[in-house]
Amino acid sequence: MNREQVGKLMGKLSAADLTLYYPGGQQNEFWSAVLDSPSYEQDVRAVKAEGARLLGTQTPELTYELFSEFEREGKRLGYEHVYFARRRRLNTFALLSLFEPENLSYLEELCEIIWAICDEYTWCLPAHLKDCEADKTIDLFSSETGFTLSEISLLLGERFPPLLRNRIAAEVSDRLFVPYLEHGPHHWETAKHNWSAVCAGSIGAAALLQKGPLARLEEIVTKVLGSMNCYLEGFGEDGVCQEGVGYWNYGFGYYVYFSDLLKRRTQGRLNLFASFKVHQIALFQQKVYLYGNAVANFSDSVPFVGIQIGLTHYLANIYPDMEVPSLEHRTEYTDDHCSRWAPALRNFIWLDSSKQTSDWASAAYYMVDAQWLVSRHETNNGRFGFAVKAGHNGEPHNHNDVGHFILMGEEAIIAADLGCGEYTQAYFGAGRYDYDCNGSQGHSVPIIDGFGQVEGEGHAAENVKVQTGAGEDYMALELSGAYNVPHLRKLKRKLVWHKTDMPWLSLEDKFTFSSVPRRITERIVTRCRPTVMENGIVGLSNGADQSASIRYDTHGADVLITARSYSDHFGQASEYYTIDFELKELSLVNRFSLTIEMKE
To answer: Which residues pair with residue 495 across a beta bridge?
Structure first.
């Protein structure tokens, strides 16, 4: 869509005022009702507790030592901890100023943190600057910051002095609009992942909220729509976010935030929700949860993810087949370590306490483009979840994990995906697959003659067959293409999820070689403590009770258990175990099978 077409569709715009957020623009009445409603009590209490903690404390400084740590050592967390603490402070005092407009101490703290953020050398993270010039670079967090300040400025309005409102407008223009329009194109403008939606969406949202020339707004919106199309190209028609559900919340969330403002300001003439693919992307959330807050956390995702309840309720108002989980599964205010304003605000203003909610129902989904099979199963014995992926090893936030699977019982991760590790320079560099959470060595797939899977879109599953039904779900696939082992001719894997009252999983692998291999290791990754028992059983315990057991043929394989750890996304040592079954008496054709039986 070119600028002339965008200009015609935009037409006469509605005002950028409080009616974008509240019925009739009645802001004080809305927040007064929030404070009196039990539906919001948990979130209000969390924001107030954070405000009490922060009052009387100093805003942490972003020092040169912290800023330069990434260049010196490749580490990110030191600077980012302070950067995001400043955003938490901003969000908290902005929300408290909306809760209690008569409390001037909150407003004073808010003005101070806004001034401090406007003084920052750059709103970008050092990890995203590299050799670029700071004043010409836009990254995820600089764009988010501009959106945040623009939105807070509109919501607080004349409660801010003109000096502060003018400075916000000037900083957003200098740090976002000018480099976006004059120093591009930026690498993320055509990205087929979260960067295009977050960066372009935030810039577009800020432009829709700021006062400025209509010609500038039209130019920005035209560019943003191009990036949004690129973002959607990163999805198949099945709507799967291959980056993981956390990045669905992130990238698709910012797609929605921008699209909502655009739809409102153009009075529905530009409606990005009227799309089959966008509808399918919205439905991805209900397909990826295994039970409660437990997710199929393939790629860079954590295993338990709270629901962005505002985003969910908003989408459910557009798409009637969007499932609405119970409020108990919503994310907590302090859960987001990046302290993003846009979802935090919308968890209040988009929450609809009249929505009918329910727990995730038993269901099985096969998402054909991504080749993910996700199955939820609930019986009188508890809630269970199984997921397996085929796909390829060149996906966004890729892990080498073709044929890898996840198995969960109530609060027990039987077969685990380690998810995302600590983001460092090396994590996104040449050493990415040395990290256990990214390389196939940290996934439940075979190791052949010491070699794991290799990265690249060409290293993919073939001949994928899937069936779902009331009694069982299964996936069969050819895995040899995921490896670069010359004498490996075929590697057929079949996983069957038996959905009985006490469900169980069967795994069968068949290896075919052109010459006899030296070693075949079948690896299972678990968060439970494994114990080798008698008669070919490995017990898996989560605490005092046994959660599952693995049965295998002792005549065909020896077993080795190893306790391991890696640095998780938050820089904390996270423990897990590998259970390695070493095949005996190798030949040109080798078979291995096991079962994993759930326990009460």
So the answer is: 475, 507
CA 316-141-420 angle, to 5 degrees, is 75
Q: What is the CA radius of gyration of the chain?
A: 25
Tell me the C-alpha distance between 412 and 546, whole Å: 10
* Alpha carbon separation from 448 to 33, 239, 394, 582 (Å, rounded): 62, 34, 21, 10
Distance separating the N- and C-terminal Cα atoms of the chain: 57
Cβ atoms < 10 Å from Cβ of 518: 9
| Cα–Cα distance for residue pair 203/206, rounded to 1 Å | 5
> For tokens 């998780």, what's the residue?
568
The pLDDT, as a whole number, for residue 8 is 83
Q: Strand 405-409 and strand 392-393: pairing?
A: unpaired
Please tell me the distance from the alpha carbon of residue 203 to that of residue 138, in angstroms, as a whole number: 10
Reduce the DSSP state of residue 155 to 3 states and report it: helix
Residues 6+ apart with CB under 8 A from 254: 144, 194, 197, 198, 201, 202, 205, 342
Q: What is the structure's pLDDT at 6? A: 86
Q: Spell out the SS3 assignment of 202-219.
A: HHHHHHHHCCCCHHHHHH
Take residue 316 and report the two structure tokens written for it. Answer: 């459910």
Residue from 411, 405, 349, 416 nearest 374 by CA: 405
**2, 4, 7, 262 from 10: Cα distances, Å:** 12, 10, 5, 9
Using left for φ > 0, alpha for ψ between -120 and 50, and beta otherwise, residue 406 falls in beta
pTM score? 0.96
Round to whole Å and give the CA distance between 558 and 563.
Answer: 17
List per-block mean pLDDT (blocks of 10 residues) for the chain, which spans 600 residues.
84 88 94 96 97 96 96 94 98 98 97 98 94 87 98 97 98 98 96 98 97 93 98 98 96 98 96 98 98 95 96 98 94 96 98 92 97 97 96 97 95 94 94 97 98 98 98 98 98 98 97 98 97 94 83 96 96 97 98 93
* Among the listed residues 234, 241, 238, 206, the one whose alpha carbon sits nearest the alpha carbon of residue 220: 206
Cα 61 to Cα 80, 172, 470, distances in angstroms: 11, 21, 57
CB within 8 A of 222, min separation 6: which ones?
A: 1, 2, 3, 6
DSSP state of 197: I
Using the structure block, give the residue that is written with the tokens 């067959």. Answer: 465
Residue type at 6 in one-letter notation: V
CB atoms within 10 A of CB 462: 13
Secondary structure (3-state) at 406:
strand
